[in-house]
Amino acid sequence: MTSLGGTDAYLKIAPASLGPEALAAARRELRFYRDLASIVPVRAPRLINHLDVADGVALLLADAGGSLAVDMWRERDWAALGHDLAALHSASGLPTRAWDGPDALGAAMTDPDIRTMREFWESALPQFDHILSGADRVRGDMSAVPPTFVHGDCHTENVTFDHGSLVLCDWQSSGVGRPSGDLALLSVRATPAGVAVPRALFDAYLKVNTERSAELRRATLAEELAILLFQWPHYAMYNSPAGNDRIRRRGTDLAARWTGESDSGGRST
């Protein structure tokens, strides 16, 4: 669509009928665009106008280019995203008071749906019970790196390309949280399509944010494993059998790496 000022734009609407969680997410995104979008060290869509009333929330955002299917991403695109995430995660001086991000994974680990998890994983993952009993260790590894400001829903469908640069969109889950979450979710969402996130992303990230690289790799491994075990089974019905098979293979590989390192006391990934 086109705004009254002639700017190419798109409209996001969250009606109250979607429920309180959806409204809270829309208001969080509005708050991000109003308070932080102009000062974070990454590109985000420009807020043109908004409406926040009892009936819902609407955001009018300037057009920010288009997304690419994950299998169309080039290595340099992944590297650019790694650079941008590192810049976001290492940004200082952001006014992040009262900006605690939502933690759906933490909630799923606190109150796991064991039956659904077991139905999806037990036949493919011999270590299922071992990992489940060690959930506190998984959580500890996830939290090995201090919290930072994160995007919170970082996957390639939320990244657009505009005149040669990346734009991070959909900030509804942004806030202070685990940096490993942004990195791990990229891999989780790419896996069903048969795409492995290349090393170039992590290498570019660590060129910007060089501190605690071993802990970050370990945290990202644990975070991705936790997402697959505790959250993915609820979304399996929306994916193809081939995609779910790829998820199971990825989960099996991550579990072997995590249990091997935990049992040996190793810290590299």
Helix share, percent: 40-55%
Number of domains: 2
Beta strand %: 5-15%
Q: What name goes with the CATH superfamily of the largest domain?
A: Aminoglycoside phosphotransferase (APH), C-terminal lobe
Give me the side-by-side strand order of the main sheet.
Answer: 1-3-2
- Provide the gyration radius in Å: 19 Å
Number of helices: 10
CATH architecture designation of the largest domain: Alpha-Beta Complex
Poorly predicted runs of 5 or more residues: none
Give the ordered list of helices and strands.
EHEEHHHHHEEEEHHHH
Let me know the number of strands. 7
Mean pLDDT: 93
How do the strands and helices of this protein lay out in sequence?
Layout: E1 9-15, H1 20-35, E2 47-53, E3 56-62, H2 75-89, H3 104-110, H4 114-121, H5 128-133, H6 135-142, E4 148-150, E5 159-162, E6 165-168, E7 175-177, H7 179-190, H8 199-208, H9 213-231, H10 241-264
Antiparallel strand pairs: 1-3, 2-3, 4-7, 5-6
Helix pairs in contact: 2-8, 6-9, 7-9, 9-10
InterPro entries: Aminoglycoside_PTrfase, Kinase-like_dom_sf
Organism: Micromonospora pallida
Keywords: Transferase
